[in-house]
Design a protein that fits this description.
Layout lengths: L2 H26 L4 E10 L7 E10 L4 E10 L11 H4 L3 E2 L1 E4 L4 E10 L1 H7 L2 E11 L4 E12 L1
Antiparallel strand pairs: 1-2, 2-6, 3-4, 3-7, 5-6, 7-8
Length: 150
């Protein structure tokens, strides 16, 4: 084998290896991504409590540390003063379980009493989320999903 082919092949391996390392490092820097988000509200009826359930898949190359969830009415205070990441710092956390190597399936469920339903009002509601990856990257969305309280 000629020296020129060996040197050329070695240079190509270095370039490809560097590109692979860059791609891997870049993937580690990507913020969490939420997919397949759903929200469901069931009103209380008679002696039966209602419920609110939110589910989503969160993908992060470094792993998922947490997912904070906050449901809020479209006609509420955040309609005029937008919700921020800071508002979600004290929000409830969803329960997340591994779904694949870099994805977790997260579920958040609460019961809703008749008194809570009466106080909350009706209409369109939004679900805000704050996903935090193991490397500290975050993704905030004040309208990850919508649902209607009727």
């Amino acid at each position: 084998m000629s020296r020129r082919i060996i040197v050329g092949s070695a240079a190509a391996l270095v370039i490809l290896g560097g590109a692979g390392a860059f791609a891997l490092a870049h993937a580690e820097e990507q913020p969490p991504v939420l997919e397949n988000s759903t929200a469901r509200y069931s009103a209380p009826a008679g002696d039966r409590e209602g419920s609110f359930t939110f589910a989503t898949d969160v993908k992060a190359a470094s792993g998922v540390k947490s997912l904070k969830v906050l449901a809020w009415p479209a006609a509420g205070p955040f309609a005029k003063n937008p919700l921020t990441k800071k508002d979600l710092a004290g929000a409830d956390s969803a329960t997340c379980k591994p779904a694949s190597e870099d994805t977790v399936h997260c579920t958040y469920k609460v019961t809703v009493s008749a008194a809570e339903a009466a106080d909350s009002g009706t209409g369109r509601w939004y679900v805000a989320t704050l996903a935090t990856a193991d490397n500290g990257d975050t993704t905030f969305n004040d309208k990850t999903a919508t649902f209607t309280v009727g």
